[in-house]
Amino acid sequence: MLIACMSKYQSVRGTRDLLPELKRSFRLIDETAYKTAQTYGFSEIETPIFEFSDVFHRSLGETSDAVSKETYTFTDRGGDSITLRPEGTAGVVRSFVSEGLAQHVPLKLYYYGPMFRYERPQKGRYRQFYQFGVEILGLESALADVECLDLAWTIIKKLKLSERCILEINTLGDVQSRNRYRQALVAYLTPYKTELSADSQVRLEKNPLRILDSKDEGDKKIVANAPLMENYLNETSKKFFDDVQQGLKNLNIPYKINPKLVRGLDYYCHTVFEFTTTELGAQGAILSGGRYDGLVEMLGGPKTAGVGWAAGVDRLADLCAVNLENQKVAPISFIANGENALKEAVRLASLARNRNQYCEVFLTGNFKKKLEKANKLGTSKAVLIFDQENGSLEYKIKDFTTGEEKAATQAEAEKI
Ligand code: HAM
């Protein structure tokens, strides 16, 4: 009976509570990312976590897994079909169009928040997960792709993860190149149709490029000899990809070309990329994105180029856990012995906190226990306050590194 009650109130499958330790990692990642993005001239945007379902159906494509299998969609009380956002780009572009932001291009935006996908939960894959993302709107140049990648690489370096992941890039070319390639790929795959996995048989009709990154072993064997995109690129597409690579070399950003990288969302053209790690099992992509020049028009706006990426903060946090451990800040502790001393400790800590100092005051326990707690928290310095028999207070300042204690005045304790 008790077990049944407990399970009823567990968090929903695929969601998790960000308890203080984990939340601290999330916060540090978000802070590192947005402070770095600001140095590249990006500004923050926040869009709602739900949109009319059409926003995602139009932009991600009906055949993308995100839309066909993974959306949280419901009809609201007014009869509208609403979807919890599975990613951030569609909402940013919807906002760009509906808020008339086209007159302000080029725009460089970043965002952070929860996304929702009904995927099979496993390590590194959640149904509510968090992305930090960036989008550049209105820049056609390959240098915008390079700037995006440079920003991603700088953040990864600041999080000390550069040794633990690799940038994979590919090009999907422009519409003309992609259509030619699509035809060649379908011609190659059609004779194998019955041998393909059930999912890939559907994709062969609707979205054959997705078969290239199928995880099915049988599909992988068939795909191994498939024609390659690079042989179907027209001059414009070839030059664009060359320019991106030149830009990466210029900035010493290491990368590897992965000709099978196609990405799951339909809106991409030209550059697609993923930073991957082998340390998180099957869910190795920690940051991914690409160029999406047709998306603004698709959502009813003027022809506008776009490029961006999103990082999976849950996955970064799993990787960073060790790196972040020694970034804890040491408090100043206020340790009271006696009732009046405790009131004074609360007052002194408030003064220091108003100067942005991190302080701890221990409201319970005896004096010895309080000293132990302070030590455990890594206290650097403490103010010790004692009730005196005559009703006055005595102050001491203790240096926790040397263990040295010396008498202090109230004025000194106020300024610590
Ligand atoms: P995405 O590849 O679908 O792209 O997601 C970006 C990142 O979010 C992934 O690399 C991964 O780290 C993380 N992620 C995705 N699904 C999950 C999940 N179920 N659990 C945990 N983490 C997950 C996009 O979302 C595009 N909007 C990126 C973009 C921005 N393209 C252009 N601009």
The shape, in one word, is elongated
Please count the beta strands (DSSP E, at least 2 residues each). Answer: 16
The residue ranges in which pLDDT falls below 50 over 5 or more consecutive positions are none
Number of helices, counting only DSSP H or I runs of 4 residues or more: 15
Structural class: alpha+beta
CATH topology group of the largest domain: BirA Bifunctional Protein, domain 2
Largest sheet entry: 8 strands, mixed
The CATH class of the largest domain = Alpha Beta
Sheet with most strands: strand arrangement:
1-5-6-11-10-9-7-8
Query: Which range does the strand content fall in?
Result: 15-25%
This entry's quaternary arrangement is single chain
So, the CATH homologous superfamily of the largest domain?
Answer: Bira Bifunctional Protein, Domain 2
Radius of gyration, Cα only, in angstroms?
28 Å
Measured distance between first and last alpha carbons: 55 Å
Helical proportion, percent range: 25-40%
